[in-house]
């Protein structure tokens, strides 16, 4: 029976080879922390359109260790409650908790630039594996991790204890941070947020760093890294692409019902200047979320087989409906906000600037607004006023 040591060394070697792992201290953490402990009671593997449960107790030990050290994200919960030990056959469902691919976990942790003695706040404990890596590096008393789901938090806390780390595991809404242990030198979020909550800025020391995925679309989120200033603002840039599950309190319910009824009354109709299919591309999708933070992109097909695309903004009660028109598309818009106008303006301005990569995006956070910009052109500047400041 394997104790996982060989697999941990092999995982570390792959991460080094792929460029995700560069620092010896983090390699030592990967080689020491048993990932399989943080996958109990089991995982779901996506096969044939359904989720097949694989449990630690129901699997051959060698097979379980092999699954634990695959380089992929492993789903540990479906639909907000279902775990692999509760079912015996493949099931349908929506992932709501997972153990993220080790390459992304390690590369994000390395991007934090932690130093000895740093206090770190993690938003989204999940399985507890990333918290364990940070405990190995910094010591258990220097890591605070917050998880909104009580059952997920309890399993993570048990796994951390089993791995030898009695760290600060908190059940609560991570968007509020954890002021009782503040201030922090570093804040890292392993869930996606629409914008970085000002509570995180307020609980971070001047000179401290916040690392979080900004955006709610799986194909268009950016990994933001900002430094907190003495005046209580924070400033930085998008350092790359990332994809995480949305923070529970910000996760939007899927648009349902009769879509044609929801878009029956439009205020305007015209030819689009750019194709809405561009929203399948990462940077245009990111820009769409910057321009319309509450927007949801939906595909549908009519009874006649015609493809119809929609943008809905439930918070602002607005929509855009796209239908093919020759070689292009027509858009109908309704509601108080012309969401496609805003998105189209952002995309065309980006194209006019030479279509720079997402890493060209800079951002600044205050207690009242978020500002994103590319370069020095005012046309490439977007500002979000905050109506709430947790």
Structure report:
With 390 residues, the chain is α+β, with helices and mostly antiparallel strands. It has two domains: 5-75 and 98-241, 3-Layer(aba) Sandwich (Rossmann fold); 253-350, Double Stranded RNA Binding Domain. Helix content is 25%, strand content 31%. It has ten helices and 19 strands. It has helices at 5-17, 24-32, 61-68, 102-111, 129-138, 150-162, 198-202, 259-262, 282-291, 339-352; strands at residues 42-47, 50-55, 74-78, 95-99, 120-123, 143-147, 168-171, 184-193, 204-214, 222-228, 234-241, 268-271, 296-301, 307-313, 318-325, 328-334, 361-365, 369-374, 381-385. The strands form four sheets. It has a ten-stranded mixed sheet with strand order 7-6-5-8-9-10-11-17-18-19, with helices on both faces. A five-stranded antiparallel sheet has the order 12-16-15-14-13, with no helix packed on it. It has a two-stranded antiparallel sheet with strand order 1-2. The mean pLDDT is 90.
Main traits of this protein?
390 residues; alpha+beta; Rossmann fold; Double Stranded RNA Binding Domain; 2 domains; 10-stranded mixed sheet; 5-stranded antiparallel sheet; 19 strands; 25% helix; 31% strand; globular
In brief:
The protein has helices spanning 5-17, 24-32, 61-68, 102-111, 129-138, 150-162, 198-202, 259-262, 282-291, 339-352; strands spanning 42-47, 50-55, 74-78, 95-99, 120-123, 143-147, 168-171, 184-193, 204-214, 222-228, 234-241, 268-271, 296-301, 307-313, 318-325, 328-334, 361-365, 369-374, 381-385. With 390 residues, the chain is an alpha+beta fold.
């Amino acid at each position: 029976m394997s104790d996982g040591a060989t697999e941990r060394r092999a995982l570390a070697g792959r991460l080094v080879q792929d460029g995700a792992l560069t620092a010896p201290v983090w390699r030592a953490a990967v080689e020491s922390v048993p990932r399989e402990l943080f996958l109990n009671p089991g995982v779901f593997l996506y096969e044939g359109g359904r989720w097949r449960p694989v449990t630690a107790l129901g699997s051959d030990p060698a097979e379980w260790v092999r699954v634990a050290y695959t380089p992929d994200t492993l789903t540990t919960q479906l639909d907000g409650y279902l775990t692999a030990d509760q079912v015996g056959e493949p099931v349908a469902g929506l992932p709501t908790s997972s153990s993220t691919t080790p390459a992304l976990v390690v590369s994000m942790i390395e991007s934090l630039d932690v130093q000895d003695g740093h206090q770190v706040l993690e938003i989204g404990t999940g399985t507890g594996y990333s918290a364990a890596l940070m405990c190995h590096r910094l010591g258990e008393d220097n890591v605070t991790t917050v998880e909104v789901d009580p059952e997920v938090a309890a399993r993570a806390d048990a796994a951390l204890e089993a791995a030898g780390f009695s760290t600060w595991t908190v059940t609560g809404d991570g968007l509020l941070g954890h002021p009782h242990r503040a201030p922090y030198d570093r804040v890292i979020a392993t869930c996606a947020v629409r914008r970085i909550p000002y509570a995180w800025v307020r609980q971070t020391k001047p000179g401290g760093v916040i690392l979080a995925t900004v955006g709610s679309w799986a194909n268009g989120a950016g990994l933001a890294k900002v430094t907190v200033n003495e005046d209580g603002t924070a400033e930085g840039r998008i350092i790359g692409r990332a994809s995480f599950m949305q923070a529970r309190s910000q996760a939007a319910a899927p648009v349902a019902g009769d879509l044609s009824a929801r878009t029956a009354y439009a205020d305007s109709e015209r030819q689009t200047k750019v194709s809405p299919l561009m929203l399948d591309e990462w940077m245009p999708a990111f820009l769409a979320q910057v321009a319309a933070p509450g927007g949801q992109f939906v595909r549908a097909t009519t009874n006649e087989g015609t493809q119809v695309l929609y943008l809905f903004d439930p918070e602002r009660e607005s929509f855009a409906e796209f239908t093919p028109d020759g070689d292009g598309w027509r858009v109908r818009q309704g509601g108080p906000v012309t969401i496609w106008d805003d998105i189209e303006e952002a995309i065309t301005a980006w194209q006019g600037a030479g279509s720079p990569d997402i890493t060209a995006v800079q951002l600044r956070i205050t207690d009242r607004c978020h500002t994103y910009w590319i370069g020095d052109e005012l046309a490439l500047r977007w500002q979000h006023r905050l109506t709430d400041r947790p």
